[in-house]
Amino acid sequence: MIAVLGLVVGVVVGLLVRPEVPAVVEPYLPIAVVAALDAVFGGLRAMLDGIFVDKVFVVSFLSNVVVAALIVFLGDKLGVGSQLSTGVVVVLGIRIFSNAAAIRRHVFRA
């Protein structure tokens, strides 16, 4: 319940304050959001399976974001940033849909 309240407060504050993202960070923000969504769906799946551990979730959340941003940064430095960004999004997207399917099967007992 606290997490949902924190999410709602964060969204409302973000909409009211309208923070400006520095141009240097802009290429990494979408990848970080997708990586964070992967961790959230993985945590929800673990919770429904009864194996959720908060420390594992926090480490997964942070490491997903950092590793995804590092891959995109490396791609930018090598001159192939868009290709590596696409690869990261595809891999994380597959994981998100896999976790969503497991959540759906668990919720609907299918």
Q: Brief description of this entry?
A:
The protein is mainly α. It has helices at 2-17, 29-49, 54-78, 81-108.
What's the assembly state of these chains? single chain
How much of the sequence lies in strands comes to: under 5%
Number of spatially distinct domains: 1
Number of helices: 4
Q: Any idea what the shape is? A: globular
What does this structure look like?
This protein has one domain. The protein is mainly alpha-helical. Helix content is 82%, strand content 0%.
Which key features would you list for this structure?
single chain; about 110 residues; mainly alpha; 4 helices
What topology does this entry show?
Layout: H1 2-17, H2 29-49, H3 54-78, H4 81-108
